[in-house]
Design goal:
mainly alpha; 2 strands; 3 helices; two-stranded antiparallel sheet; globular
């Protein structure tokens, strides 16, 4: 899986820092990612963490539709529960 390292909104400008911070907290990644401006500096992550970053990137774009295929497969049990009980609803 390839991840882009830029947090951008739908039109290509930098994503809202407030929105990014809110999603970092929801995804439990606020202590794992180093972000400077709109760039993620550390991309050495586990497979589950990489999927969370991918979700962060699309959340920052604020798209109307998001298609997820087996997204929770590589998540640890704790975060899998968060995904199904908090994020999906």
């Amino acid at each position: 899986m390839h991840l882009f390292d830029r947090l951008i909104e739908r039109e290509g400008a930098s994503a809202s820092p407030k929105l990014v911070q809110a999603w970092l907290e929801r995804l439990k990644m606020q202590d794992k990612l180093k972000i400077e401006g709109n760039k993620i500096l550390n991309m050495q992550l586990s497979k589950g963490q990489s999927k969370r970053v991918a979700l962060l990137l699309v959340a920052a774009e604020e798209r109307d539709v998001l298609l997820l295929d087996e997204w929770a497969e590589d998540q640890d049990p704790h975060f899998r529960r968060i995904f199904y009980r908090e994020l999906l609803p």
